[in-house]
Amino acid sequence: MSCSLTEQTCIPCSGEVPPASAAEIAELKPQIPAWEIISVDGVDQLQRIYDFSNFQTALEFTNKVGALAETAQHHPALLTEWGKVTVTWWTHALHGLHRNDFIMAAQTDDAAQGLTVSAPANPYG
């Protein structure tokens, strides 16, 4: 591994490139330890829930991730709620994971620096 995931750039990806192999996933996953690999309808995805102190900060983070996604032309599923944001990365064209997803997960972690908190108490229930 020549440089960290946060320093890497997504490559254009079509359905013609292979998804990440089990060996590649085993190499990349330890670099984003807070992320889970989930399966939705048989499609492997990376998912993480970030906690924030309020809705405004959660929305600020959502917008930061959206800007990263636009720059990379690789887009996640984002669920913004009071005090938390769920981010899910996968490569739609491959119906699974690619190195790009791990790069974007690492960059998402960087975007959260200084914004996240321990699980907040939601005053709205």
UniProtKB/TrEMBL annotation:
Lyase listed as a keyword: yes
EC number: 4.2.1.96
Gene3D superfamilies: Transcriptional coactivator/pterin dehydratase
Record key words, sorted: Lyase
Catalytic activity: (4aS,6R)-4a-hydroxy-L-erythro-5,6,7,8-tetrahydrobiopterin = (6R)-L-erythro-6,7-dihydrobiopterin + H2O
Keyword Lyase among UniProt keywords: yes
Highest taxon above the source species: Bacteria
Stored SUPFAM superfamilies: PCD-like
Pfam families cross-referenced by the UniProt entry: Pterin_4a
UniProt GO MF annotations: 4-alpha-hydroxytetrahydrobiopterin dehydratase activity
Classification via InterPro entries: PCD_sf (IPR036428), Pterin-4-alpha-carb_dehyd (IPR050376), Pterin_deHydtase (IPR001533)
Entry's family note: Belongs to the pterin-4-alpha-carbinolamine dehydratase family.
Protein name: Putative pterin-4-alpha-carbinolamine dehydratase
Upper lineage: Bacteria, Bacillati, Cyanobacteriota, Cyanophyceae, Nodosilineales
